[in-house]
Write a structure and sequence with these properties.
mainly alpha; Arp2/3 complex 21 kDa subunit ARPC3; two-stranded antiparallel ribbon; 11 helices; 75% helix; 5% strand; globular
Length: 268
């Protein structure tokens, strides 16, 4: 029975770790795109003022689509494997992100083959359409560089904000659970996310744009606030999802193992 419990706990940790690291890595790569939330949803643009900046709307990095999954995984891992589990995985995720960007950097500096920019158009039968598209992708290597070659300051800012946010989330989650016990999952999950993401939202902008690109302080505060408002809405909206995941994991582990892992997590 002990081996069965150990195997279940190990499988759960591997699954949660894989989801956590994969989503963190994807978020870093897709984060280069900025999109309009309102236009994506078919809504008119918002227009509000913050810190002296007019006509602001929800123009967000595409990374926000997937970061909420990381927030949820952080809280689930903390619940069953403790704050040390979250922090270890956060450092591992940072290592994998840095590793990925190293090879992206190397790939960017490889000299492209002459046929490469239009080679992926061979499946198009219509010669006129193929010729038109071929001209449009003549700078395909430049596009590759622009999409994948995010500035080093942005990468650094993202990594610093990520680890600070994760450490804060793990510590605050643990403190709240010491007070509430197994009750009020919503409070420790949402509360820890709201506080940690407050710092995350501004740290990345301060490093990358206030110090790295000489943005005025008012603009950094305005953009950071817009991003934080979105994260607050997502954190609250995802609360039911956390309960669903808890229920699935509880059924998988069973009462005894679930209680054992949660009890051990409070000691880690």
């Amino acid at each position: 029975m002990k081996n069965q419990h150990k195997n279940k706990a190990t499988r759960l940790f591997i699954i949660l770790s894989a989801i956590f690291i994969t989503n963190a890595l994807i978020a870093e790569f897709i984060g280069v795109k900025i999109f309009s939330l309102e236009r994506t949803l078919g809504l008119p643009l918002s227009s509000f003022n913050l810190f002296g900046h007019n006509d602001l709307s929800f123009q967000l990095t595409a990374g926000v689509l997937i970061w909420p999954v990381v927030f949820v995984m952080t809280d689930i891992i903390n619940e069953y494997f403790g704050r040390s589990g979250v922090i270890r995985l956060s450092w591992l995720a940072i290592f994998m992100i840095a590793y990925a960007f190293l090879f992206v950097y190397l790939a960017i500096h490889l000299v492209p083959a002459d046929f490469w920019p239009s080679s992926h158009l061979d499946f198009i039968a219509d010669p006129q359409q193929k010729d038109k598209l071929s001209k449009e992708v003549s700078n395909y290597n430049t596009a590759f560089t622009l999409v994948f070659g995010q500035g080093l300051k942005i990468i650094l800012a993202s990594i610093v904000a990520f680890i600070i946010g994760q450490i804060l989330d793990a510590l605050i989650f643990h403190k709240i659970k010491l007070i509430t016990g197994d009750r009020r999952i919503w409070l420790r999950a949402t509360g820890s996310t709201l506080i940690s993401q407050f710092f995350d939202s501004y740290i990345v902008l301060f490093i990358a744009f206030y110090f790295g690109a000489n943005w005025p302080l008012s603009l950094v505060l305005a953009i950071g606030t817009v991003n934080y408002i979105y994260k607050v809405c997502m954190a609250i909206g995802l609360t039911p999802v956390i309960y669903v995941i808890h229920s699935i994991i509880h059924r998988y582990l069973g009462d005894d193992l679930s209680k054992e892992l949660k009890s051990n997590a409070m000691k880690l």
